[in-house]
Amino acid sequence: MLTTRTWHVQRLFFLISARDHFLQELTEEGFQVTLIRSADTAAGIAQYRSANPSAELIAAEPSSHQQLQQFQELGITLIPNDFFLTPRPLFAQWAGAQKSLVMENFYRAQRQRLNILMEGADPVGGRWNYDADNRLPPPKGEHQWPPYFEHARDEIDKKVMQEITDRKLLVYGDAPDATWGTTREAALKQLDHFLDKAFSEFGAYEDAMTTQSWAVNHSLLSTYLNVGLLHAEEVVAAALKRFKKGDIPLAGAEGFIRQIIGWREYINGLYWFFGDLYRAENGLAATRPLLPLFEDSTKTKMNCVSTNVRDIEARAWVHHIPRLMVLSNLALITGTSPQEFLDWMRRSFIDAADWVMVPNVIGMSLHADGGKLATKPYASGGSYISKMSNYCKSCPFDPKKRVGEDACPFTTLYWDFLARHRDRFAKNHRMAQQLAGINRLSDMPQLQERAQEVLDLLSRGEL
Question: Cα–Cα distances in Å, from 159 out to 79, 166, 186, 406?
């Protein structure tokens, strides 16, 4: 894994240090721990079996198709993976009974099954979903965003950072700072910090983007959940306990809990339900190589893109709206290869895992699956970014313009994307309004000409 691609240095640091801390904790608790360094997993298992020929190897079901197949071929006894609240067979049973795999339907079933935010058979407050109350843009002017929590570094952390340097592993990004903890104790502190400092306005600003805060009111807990330093059940229990104090809005509590018991479980379920071939889908025939700006924040003048790529360079993370409506949106409307974009996401984000990135990129973000996951592509012009952020105020491009050198590339490429795929989306009733808008544009020839110029400039890292 360490040498298969160029990883973000903070992603490698976090995974290695979290592993080494866990091994130390197991040793301190009296477990016998054997750490084997080998070229790959198969070689390490062969080495262990050679030294322990009578030992039975038992492992939790891996969280990726590739490793599951590998473990099965190596004859390892597997037990169910308990990182999630929904066993894989249970999700498959639900999915197999659906006409369409709508997340909201799964989420409501989860609320009932797990008896979370329920009053008998009804949802607390009388509504299942408070999304409409949770989509505020950032306030105008200065706002008191939650403070960042900083994690102290110990000797294991320092040793791991030195190991990465000494081994000359292929990495990029800023050196690890105090953003991410690497222990169970640190994960619990991050949870407490969120509940105390950020939970109250999480719902209101969960979709907001601002240069004033890279984290806004987000919890940053996906990083810890995805490696098992926290469990979904304890995160939900802590959030419910905090909500019951009475000073957390129901809309915010519901929105946060929906991310844990709804979206996270839904995405993991779909990963296994769709199978391993899903990652290769490319329903829009997108083949453009990864744009230079994804690898280098200085390769674009678009403030929204450069800000978020710079945040990724700094700490291997941005929240879900920049991922979907800035970075993935740009990849979608430029026709970037889903597989190349998936690879970039996998090696760039600290909370990346195969199970979460494959459905989110192939289905949700790039619509490469033809609508199996999302019923319409999440394509947008500059107006959405302008509404939900403060990026456009200091950007040389105008989100209201479609043509001209100062036209927002998102706006230009959005209409060009719709025109390119007009026939493909013609029967999608959720796209009818957007497609009808093309007929009202008198400057389509100029727009499509400008779109080609924009694509050429982006491909050279010159826009």
Answer: 33, 10, 18, 49
